[in-house]
Amino acid sequence: MTSPDIVIIGTGMGGASVAAGLAHSGASILLLERGERLADTPECIDARAIFAAGHFRPKEMWREAGGGSFNPGNYYYVGGNTKFYGAVLIRFRRQDFCEIEHHGGLSPAWPFPYEELEPWYSKAEALFNVRGTLGEDPTEPPHSAPYPFPPVPDEPPIARLRERLRKIGLNPASLPLGVDHALWLQRAATPWDAFPNAGRGKMDAESCALAAALKDENVRLETGARVERLEASRDGRSIARIHYRVGAEQRTVSPKLVILSAGAVNSAALLLRSGEDGGLANSSGQVGRNFMNHNSAAMLAIDPRRRNDSIYQKTLGFNDFYLGDGEGGKPLGNVQLLGKISGDILRPNVPLLPAAAANFIAAHSVDWYLMTEDLPDPESRVMVDGSEIVLQWRRTNLESLQRLTRRMRTICRATGYPIVLSRPFDKRTPSHQCGTVRIGRDPASAPLDPYCRSYDHRNLFVVDASFLPSSAAVNPALTIAAQALRVADHIRRKELS
Predict the structure, then answer these.
(1) Per-residue pLDDT tens for 106-121?
(2) Using H for helix, E for strand and C for coil, what is the string for the chain?
(3) What distance in Å separates the CA atoms of residue 332 and residue 320, rounded to the nearest whole number?
(4) What is the rounded radius of gyration, in angstroms, for the C-alpha atoms of the chain?
(5) Does the model's pTM come out above 0.90?
(6) Which of 115, 212, 290, 295 could bridge across to 20 with cysteines, CB 3.0–4.6 Å?
(7) Could you tell me the domains of the chain?
(8) Using CA atoms, how far apart are residues 87 and 166, in angstroms rounded to an integer?
(9) pLDDT above 60 for 1
(10) What is the pLDDT of residue 56?
(11) Is there a contact between 469 and 441 (Cβ–Cβ < 8 Å)?
């Protein structure tokens, strides 16, 4: 088989978006995806299958450094984790590209400002058909183009909640969402948050970016293709071969360009397993380090006197405490609605709770997601032990989450919810893993340049959440897509022209 010009490893938000940006360039492109397409089965709309039985969770186990094994909850399908994401496609704030002091330390500046990425944010919003509106959120950065579609409408209980939040002086804003809610609800009356997209309504990496890329006859997708290692050229300055397996068959391909987009953990692990003396692309010693995963918590605001009959719920959030605590103090984070929980979603998280009680709580709650920034720490890292992934997550900035949780309890009670329950997410929930192969201007401290190109290997790019130098405190999917489109444009101009 003739080797393609470009191989992209992974079809999540980074890989699919960079493929869309490179399509119709004249280059032959092969996407290697370890998973298969997600089939439309009854389990896709069955909350017990998803949340209790773990029907879609991977069978693999990772190991905690110095501890036991755990099931990580990263998904391996065409489209990656976006098949299950909440479809919040929000921009990082302009200030997120600058150095910011948090309770737990400093969030570093990016190697370029917001304005550099802004045009690509607009292109990513168009690619993913984002629903949203401007003018509601005071922290919203400048946009050069409006959202392609109007926002997903609030259901009546959420519309009333929006008004109560406004009355106490907050700025609730419509979440920018990649979802056609009417089309989604044709399948079943479920939320989309954490429910798999089998092709009906959610704008994920497969349904939008990859679908656009595959319209080019020069772009080909190979599923069930698990990449085992990369091989450097003799001089070590480029990647010469990709070794992967399909079933029991070992295969090798030698493209001109390699784009690694396997996710923050798996991209780092693949580089560490490849080569010798610390792995590939790692003269800085930073591959696998600076692992970040948002500090986040679920909060249920309960009013036993009032039912919440919303189906999807997830239409608004607020950033009133994003850039500061509202009292002159340091940033706390983002607050947004979760997809509407049900008793079947709640019970696996509280096993001793009787079904009747779980159903009552779910029917009378509004469900929130609190998210604060995790800061880069070189000792928070991905490591490998043979074929095993070892994760050492040293959480930072937890004081911000604690302060935001306390503030939200007050807000919930002020808006008419006397009972407030909360629980932080743990390592089993991948809350936006990032940072393990970061971009920077100094090759001594960053494996990648600002265009995600390896400083060590001239034909290697890493385009997924691992490139993020900071986690910010909002969902990173749109930022990954925007940077992927920016990188694709750079490759077209500099490598393919």
Answers:
(1) 999 999 999 999 999 9
(2) CCCCCEEEECCCHHHHHHHHHHCCCCCCEEEEECCECCCCCHHHHCHHHHHHCCCCCCCCCEEECCCCEECCCCCCECCHHHHCCCCECCCCCHHHHCCEEECCEEECCCCCCHHHHHHHHHHHHHHCCCECCCCCCCCCCCCCCCCCECCCCCCHHHHHHHHHHHHCCCCCEECCECECHHHHHHHCCCCCCCCCCCCCCECCHHHHHHHHHCCCCCEEEEECEEEEEEEECCCCCCEEEEEEEECCEEEEECCCEEEECCCHHHHHHHHHHCCCCCCCCCCCCCCCCCCECCEEEEEEEECCCCCCCCCCCCCEEECCCCCCCCCCCCCCCEEEECCCCCHHHHHHHCCCCCHHHHHHHHHCEEEEEEEECCCCCCCCEEEEECCEEEEECCCCCHHHHHHHHHHHHHHHHHCCCCEEEEEECCCCCCCCCECCCCECCCCCCCCECCCCEECCCCCEEECCHHHCCCCCCCCCHHHHHHHHHHHHHHHHHHCCC
(3) 9
(4) 22
(5) yes
(6) 212
(7) 6-39+47-494 (3.50.50.60)
(8) 25
(9) no
(10) 96
(11) no
Residue 403 scores a pLDDT above 90 = yes
User: Which single residue is written with the structure tokens 């017990």?
Assistant: 48
As given in the structure block, the two tokens for residue 486 are: 């920016």
Q: Which two tokens stand for residue 256?
A: 């001109």
